[in-house]
Amino acid sequence: MALILNEEQQMLKEAASGFLQDKAPIAQLRELRDSEDERGYKENVWKEMVDMGWAGIAIPEEYGGVGYGYTGLGIVLEEVGKNLSASPINASVLAAASVILKAGTEEQKTQLLPALAGGELSISLALEEKGQHKTADFATTAKSNGEDYVLSGEKRFVADAATADKLIVAASTEKGTQLFLVDAARKGVATETVTMIDSRNSARIQFNDVDLAASDRLGNDEDASAALSDAVDIINAGVSAELLGISIRAFEMTVDYLKERKQFDAVIGTFQGLQHRAAHLFCEIELGKSMVLKTLQAIDSGDPGMSLLASATKAKMCEVAQLATNEGIQMHGGIGMTDEYDLGFYIKRARSLEHSFGDRNYHLDRFAALSAY
Amino acid sequence: MTELASFQAETRQWLEDNCPESMRQPFRSESEWCWGGRNFEFISEDQRIWMQRMGEKGWTVPTWPREYGGGGLSKDEAKILAKEMRSLRCRKPLESFGISMLGPALMKFGNEEQKLEHLPKIARGEIRWCQGYSEPNAGSDLASLATKAEDQGDHYLVNGSKIWTSYADQADWIFCLVRTDTSVKHDGISFLLFDMESEGVSTSPIRLISGSSPFCETYFENVKVPKENMMGELNKGWTIAKYLLTHEREMISSIGESFASMSPSQSALSTIGTDSEGRLANSALRRDCAQMEIDGMAFFLSLERGKDEAKAGQGMGAVSSMFKYYGTELNKRRMELQLAIDGADAMVWQDDPKVPALWLRSKANSIEGGTSEVQLNIISKRVLGLPDK
Question: A6, B122, B158, B269 - which has most CB atoms within 10 Å?
Answer without folding.
Answer: B122
